[in-house]
Design brief:
Layout lengths: L1 H24 L4 H18 L3 H23 L5 H40 L6 H4 L2 H7 L8 H11 L4 H8 L1
Length: about 170
């Protein structure tokens, strides 16, 4: 039951908070990535994951961190995005990491194109009074990629190994 709650409630809730925070402020606080890390540790215990399986998940998380910081170094994503990607990679493990990266990239491309198009039009007066929307509309603000990272995880979650593990416990 605990494993199910962590996969079906805690993980999606933390991802939704990260996406919303990124959308509103272009930042993802470290406490969210740390909460995802802690929730995974609880999941590993509740689901009875073996040490080798936990090790593979940890290795996937480190691979995600390496890839995320490579993209950060290139200026393609922010540091919070890199840490969020690593936290999701920890949850998914290598089995679901490639499909997740592909889906997050597709959602990221769609988000980028949508924002580029929307930024060409002036904001309606009602929206121009909202500071976070004005910042989101500003072409110099970049892209809140945490939204795409969360969307990729949401799209993939029902077909993941962790979802099946949680259902089996």
């Amino acid at each position: 039951m605990v494993a199910e709650v962590l996969v079906l409630v805690a993980l999606p809730l933390l991802l939704a908070i990260a996406a919303g925070w990124d959308l509103a402020s272009f930042t993802i606080p470290n406490f969210l990535s740390l909460a995802l890390l802690g929730a995974f540790a609880l999941f590993a215990l509740a689901a009875g994951l073996s040490l080798p399986v936990i090790g593979w998940h940890l290795l996937a998380g480190f691979a995600g961190l390496f890839l995320g910081f490579a993209l950060f170094t290139l200026g393609w994503i922010g540091g919070g995005d890199a840490k969020l990607f690593a936290a999701v990679a920890l949850w998914l493990g290598f089995h679901d990491l490639a499909p997740y990266a592909l889906l997050a990239s597709i959602f990221g491309g769609a988000l980028t194109l949508a924002l580029m198009l929307l930024r060409q039009w002036p904001l309606p007066d009602a929206l121009a009074r909202q500071g976070w929307i004005v910042k989101l509309h500003d072409a110099r603000s970049g892209i809140p990629y945490g939204v795409a990272l969360a969307a990729g995880a949401f799209a993939l979650l029902p077909s993941t190994e962790i979802f099946r593990l949680a259902a089996a416990v």
